[in-house]
């Protein structure tokens, strides 16, 4: 398989150094699992590990190779294994704050053309989480497509209501499909172009594994039943890139319920297109939507054009992103100040 079939285009060619050292080549990271890598080149897929020099010079975890990255590797063991020497710049990416650590960034995938934001119409339909996925895609310059699965488990009226709700949140295309009836699958075709890369994002149990098995044209991954409470089971434990039957590339990801946003200010604005459009009509360019005269956002909230819950989600994500953007020193100062406030309140209560 040629590199261009794996997504290597002129943009990436321009990121290469003037010349490569003897024994080195370009490959794409196709699997990451707890620090263990697999890369794919024109000859096939081989195991890889970080070169010591690269591991020593990395400044933060988000600089580590992730699924979809293009890397320069040096081969050994008769080209049966490789050392990752350099990670090429990323054209686009999907990232989140590392679970349990508000200061670290976790890369989900890189060099993605389309993000399929998968939500089940049964238990897992969650507009609040979808807001975060949309902001995440906008933050990394990835085109989102909302995919509603398991449409056979609800009636037509309920499905139309869910589609209308999503359409009110975003201008992204909405695809409703069912693996049981086969409806909706043809709508995925235009987004699965040979040499382009898509990524599946969604919680466990929404049908990502079933979806990717059908796209690949074989049972590449095991599926498991969803519990009676709607909780999914993690069937995908690593991020990996696979080639579909029509030549498109798809990165599958483990189910994610914790989606802390990194510094995604512009991504949030793009993810909340309706609120951004309203804000553009405010009397003052620096309107905080907190009571200023001529505020279009406040007017939309009052007349019902903008749902209060959606605006609350917007404010929450803006605040979360702004906090993450603070320097580590400012964060420590803010945390200490909050700690002093809590202690002061407790002292007053004890008197």
Automatic annotation (TrEMBL):
EC numbers: 3.6.1.-
Enzyme class: hydrolase
Keyword Hydrolase assigned: yes
Record keywords, A-Z: Cytoplasm, GTP-binding, Hydrolase, Metal-binding, Nucleotide-binding, Ribosome biogenesis, RNA-binding, rRNA-binding, Zinc
Domain EngC GTPase: 110-257
Residues that bind Zn(2+): 282, 287, 289, 295
Subcellular location: Cytoplasm
PROSITE patterns: ENGC_GTPASE, G_CP
Cofactor binding annotation: Binds 1 zinc ion per subunit.
NCBIfam families linked: ribosome small subunit-dependent GTPase A
Complexes and interactors: Monomer. Associates with 30S ribosomal subunit, binds 16S rRNA.
Protein's job: One of several proteins that assist in the late maturation steps of the functional core of the 30S ribosomal subunit. Helps release RbfA from mature subunits. May play a role in the assembly of ribosomal proteins into the subunit. Circularly permuted GTPase that catalyzes slow GTP hydrolysis, GTPase activity is stimulated by the 30S ribosomal subunit.
Entry similarity comment: Belongs to the TRAFAC class YlqF/YawG GTPase family. RsgA subfamily.
Protein name: Small ribosomal subunit biogenesis GTPase RsgA
Primary gene name: rsgA
């Amino acid at each position: 398989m040629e590199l261009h079939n794996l997504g290597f285009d002129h943009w990436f060619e321009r990121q290469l150094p003037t010349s490569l050292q003897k024994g080195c080549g370009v490959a794409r990271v196709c699997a990451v699992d707890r620090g263990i890598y697999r890369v794919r080149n024109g000859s096939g897929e081989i195991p890889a590990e970080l070169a010591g020099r690269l591991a020593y010079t990395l400044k933060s975890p988000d600089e580590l190779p992730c699924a979809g990255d293009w890397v320069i590797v040096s081969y050994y063991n008769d080209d049966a294994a490789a050392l990752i020497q350099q990670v090429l710049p990323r054209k686009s990416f999907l990232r989140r704050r590392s679970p349990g650590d508000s200061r670290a960034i976790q890369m989900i995938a890189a060099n993605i053309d389309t993000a399929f934001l998968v939500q089940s119409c049964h238990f897992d339909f969650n507009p609040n989480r979808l807001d975060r996925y949309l902001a995440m895609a906008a933050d990394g310059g990835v085109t989102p497509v909302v995919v509603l699965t398991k449409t056979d488990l609800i009636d037509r009226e309920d499905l139309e209501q869910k589609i209308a709700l999503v359409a009110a949140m975003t201008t992204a295309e909405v695809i409703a499909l069912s693996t049981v009836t086969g409806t909706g699958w043809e709508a995925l075709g235009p987004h699965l172009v040979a040499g382009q890369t898509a990524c599946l994002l969604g919680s466990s149990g929404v049908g990502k594994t079933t979806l990717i098995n059908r796209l690949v044209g074989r049972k590449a991954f095991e599926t498991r039943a969803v519990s009676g409470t709607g909780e999914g089971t993690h069937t995908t434990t690593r991020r990996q890139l696979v080639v579909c039957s029509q030549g498109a590339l798809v990165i599958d990801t483990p189910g994610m319920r914790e989606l802390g946003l990194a510094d995604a200010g512009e991504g949030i604005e793009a993810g909340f297109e309706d609120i951004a459009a309203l804000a553009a009509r405010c009397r003052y360019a620096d309107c905080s939507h907190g009571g200023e005269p001529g505020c279009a956002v406040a007017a939309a909230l009052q007349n019902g054009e903008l749902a209060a819950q959606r605006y609350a989600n917007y404010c929450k994500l803006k605040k979360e992103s702004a906090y993450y953007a603070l320097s580590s020193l400012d964060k420590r100062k803010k945390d200490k100040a909050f700690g002093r406030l809590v202690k002061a309140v407790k002292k007053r209560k004890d008197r």
